[in-house]
Write a structure and sequence with these properties.
334 residues, alpha/beta, 2 domains, three-stranded mixed sheet, 10 strands
């Protein structure tokens, strides 16, 4: 037991030292890069149809002989002339698909870019005619961050712009909260979806501090201003209140999911469990099995596909903090 105690104390001291070093490094980096990083933001729109054509051309050049290449060039030249003859009215009637990409972390920090991308899209998308595909990857995170991200996607639906959420790897918890806002969810066969639940945990060092005669005083105004604490002594009343808050949040989560996917059997799926795509389609968690690559390739045959990306230069300090949070959540948050 003495060895376990000494090892635990050593681990706590080491973790504290590492966190302190990272905080200091983040502070120094923030001061050094604060002015340099301001104002670096841009909106980029890339037409994916041309990208796919270039890929096909590269493959053809490698696979065809000279005779086949000459035939291909003649065909491409004829198609090019045909496209140029198409008048502006026809071009205006062609369906457009806007592609957005969301890579989620603990704080849903990508929502800062997502909101700008959606603002740009809704300023030009034609309701009932154009479409948005959101390539979504997230294991979830903080409630308020993912709640805002879901609300951003709801802006599209409220304006009558058809929206598809595409999941290649994972859309769980907060990630699935975002996905359900879409009119349609497509997932790869082994993508992880669901996890309609709420979790929270924190360490408590009260007994360790008490053993070393260290007192922690916590003063609040309001009975429920603080429920559980990492340093002070937690009470049964505080634990009850904390659990009540988790249940209330879970209830909000379930009601939100039901609003957008009313046919979903919440009694069956809202228990915090997750499923793979092939299982999820049988439970109505997703609507089709397909990778984002095949989805966009098919869209490019019938529409003009534009990838919309907003970039805001993040200070190194923020990127460092987000990286540490993601790492800690990955290894200690489950």
């Amino acid at each position: 037991m003495e060895f376990i105690y000494d090892y635990g104390l050593f681990f706590a001291q080491t973790l504290t030292l590492v966190v302190a070093v990272l905080v200091v490094a983040a502070g120094v980096t923030a001061l050094a890069g604060r002015d340099r990083d301001q104002g670096r933001e841009s909106l980029r729109v890339r037409k994916l149809n041309q990208r796919y054509r270039d890929m096909r051309r590269t493959m053809d050049q490698a696979l065809l002989d000279r005779k086949g290449l000459r035939r291909l060039r003649r065909t491409e030249k004829a198609e090019s002339k045909s496209e140029k003859k198409r008048d502006a009215a026809d071009a205006q009637q062609r369906r457009r698909v806007f592609v957005l990409r969301f890579q989620g972390d603990l704080r849903a920090s990508a929502v800062d870019n997502l909101r700008e991308e959606i603002t740009a899209v809704v300023s030009r998308a034609r309701p009932g005619h154009d479409e948005v595909v959101v390539c979504l990857e997230s294991p979830g995170g903080m409630v308020h961050g993912y709640g805002l991200a879901a609300s951003q996607l709801a802006r599209l639906r409220e304006r009558g712009i058809e929206t598809t959420a595409s999941v290649d790897r994972v859309a769980a918890s907060g990630g699935y909260l975002m996905a359900v806002v879409a009119d349609r969810i497509v997932a790869a066969p082994f993508a992880v979806v669901g996890s309609i639940g709420v979790v929270a945990q924190l360490p408590n060092f009260h007994r360790l501090l008490k053993r070393h005669d260290i007192d922690v005083e916590l003063h609040t105004a309001g009975e429920h201003k603080r429920t559980l604490t990492a340093l002070g002594e937690n009470t049964h009343a505080g634990r009850r209140k904390f659990q009540e808050e988790l249940e209330e949040t879970h209830g909000l989560f379930k009601r939100f999911v039901h609003r957008y996917r009313p046919a979903l059997d919440l009694e069956q799926v809202a228990n915090g469990d997750h499923w793979y795509g092939e299982q999820a389609i049988d439970m109505n968690l997703v609507d089709a099995l397909q990778t984002s690559d095949d989805l966009l390739l098919a869209k490019a045959d019938e529409a003009d596909v534009f990838e919309v990306t907003y970039r805001r230069k993040q200070p190194m300090s923020k990127r460092l903090v987000l990286g540490v949070e993601t790492l800690l959540h990955r290894y200690f948050g489950r």
